[in-house]
Design a protein that fits this description.
376 residues, Arc Repressor Mutant, subunit A, 3 domains, 5-stranded parallel beta sheet, two-stranded antiparallel sheet, 15 helices, 51% helix, binds adenosine-5'-diphosphate, binds magnesium ion
Length: 376
Amino acid sequence: MDNPFIFRAYKTKELFCDRQKELEQLISNCISGADTTLIAQRRIGKTGLIYRLFDEIKTQKLPIVPIYVDIFATRTLEDLVKVISEAIMESLPPKSNIGKKFLIFIKSLRPVITYDPLTSAPQIQLTLQNEEERQQTLKGLLTFLDNQNEKILLAIDEFQQIREYPEKNVEALLRTIIQKLNDVTFLYCGSKRHMMLDIFSGERNPFYRSTEFLNLQKIDHTVYSDFIKHNFTAAGKNIDDDAVRYILDWTKAHTYFTQRLCHTAFNLAGQKVDTSLVKEAAAQILQSDAVVFGQYQQLLTSGQWNLLIAIAKEGEVEQISARQFLRKHHLGNPSSVNRTLTSLIEKNLVDENISDGKTQYSINDVFFSRWLAEKY
Ligand SMILES: Nc1ncnc2c1ncn2[C@@H]1O[C@H](COP(=O)(O)OP(=O)(O)O)[C@@H](O)[C@H]1O
Ligand SMILES: [Mg+2]
């Protein structure tokens, strides 16, 4: 039997745990045409949820055409135009009416279209001479979608990336175009909290309060336990309750890490799974990831490294500049530690989580955190 615990791309709803409430809200927003902002820490399951939504739209035969575009690798407005046009082309069935019309539209821009030999995904090379042309093309693409007499859902993943473009007016440009659309609903997704919040709730910014927020927390413990148990049992592997508890505790129920630990444990398992087998799986993962963790140290200052160790040892820290925490871990003065913290957040090594009004800092990579706490 195939391993039911996946930690790469979304496969099927059977291998996807829960997110029922979030899914319902997203569907309802799609139907009513409300744009949504989805902000949550890395690897918690944002992209997976988008694909789960697309799957549901298909299964329920909802009259919505979903398009997914990941803009993580884009560096300029020109890149953005390119990846959006590729995403549209890839999502629209080439033989459908709308697919054919898009081909005519994109060909009017005289592109060079090639196909990736491995994935057969289209690659579109546009020659856009100047900024004016890029802006017009972006507008043309989105307006094209709006004119199809179909409801379109455009999910833009890692949306905060638009803040990195050298062009300074991208937010205003996008907002101006989007405001005029009637049939395209947007799902903006991102993991950099500060930037995403500033884009969508910064009073002076073009997207200010233009969307509904969707909060994605960790999967509920009980629901995740049942999911884990069910998947082991269905494969004829009996897992005891202590082992399941150990898994969710060791991974802090963080989705990616839970999936990966379960995946490895599943591979090692015979007909019985107990805590000692789970520990063996955990050790195997740390051993293989240690290569990467060790390299981090070279890239960081000793202050950064020491603060990481301190946070790892605590698991979660609420008050980074609290005297007790600083003294216990010999960290120096509060203001410099705060600066170090900011730099670690910027490097995506430390997460700032806010739930129930409380802020907590933890190491983004749970395995890295376990490794640091164990080794130092
Ligand atoms: N609800 C879920 N049940 C099972 N696996 C999930 C779930 N959500 C996400 N995953 C898996 O966890 C990993 C990380 O999720 P991903 O969606 O890529 O996170 P993000 O986009 O927030 O960084 C992926 O391999 C994904 O397939
Ligand atoms: Mg993602």
